[in-house]
Amino acid sequence: MKSKQEFVGSWRIMKMSAWDKEYIDLVAPGRITISKNGNGTFRFGAVEAELDCRIETCGEVEQLNFSFAGFDEGDEISGRGWAKVDGNKMIGWFGFHQGDDSTFEAKKSK
Q1: How many CA atoms, within 13 angstroms, populate the side-chain half-sphere of residue 68?
Q2: How do residues 28-77 score in pLDDT, each as one tens digit?
Q3: What is the pLDDT at residue 94?
Q4: Which of 6, 51, 54, 106 could be cross-linked to 66 through a Cys-Cys bond (beta carbons 3.0 to 4.6 Å apart)?
């Protein structure tokens, strides 16, 4: 996938519905990074994962859909999610396979 420019870059996770700011920044500042080739990463709390992204149209809005695989405190995790961008703000959702889920809000890093 060649990601649309609006999704590409580093996004600072500011808020999540399932975890507070202290947990988001537990190990390092919470972040989502999307590259031009459609790969990406995210980290928050004790979670680090790689993303495999696809752009899909949902109604009239383009949405970034992704699957992820990585680790949470050394345990393997996987799941899926989506994100939409409005200017410098990204909103979305993470769903862990047979586990937690959370919405998130992120702000584009400069």
Answers
A1: 30
A2: 999 999 998 889 999 999 999 999 999 988 788 889 999 999 999 999 99
A3: 95
A4: 51
* Helix or strand run (H / E) with residue 8: none
33 contacts: CB under 8 Å, gap ≥ 6: 9, 10, 11, 40, 41, 42
CB 11 within 8 A of CB 32: yes
Closest CA to 79 of 104, 56, 36, 50: 50
- Dihedral sign, CA of 77, 107, 30, 40? positive
| Cα–Cα distance, 89 to 75 (Å, whole number) | 30
Amino acid (one-letter) located at 109: S
C-alpha–C-alpha distance, residues 74 and 84, integer Å: 29
Taking the C-alpha atoms of residue 23 and residue 102, their distance in angstroms, rounded to an integer, is 13
Give the total residue count for the chain. 110
Whole-structure pTM value: 0.90
- Stated as kind and residue range, the H or E segment containing 24 is helix 21-24
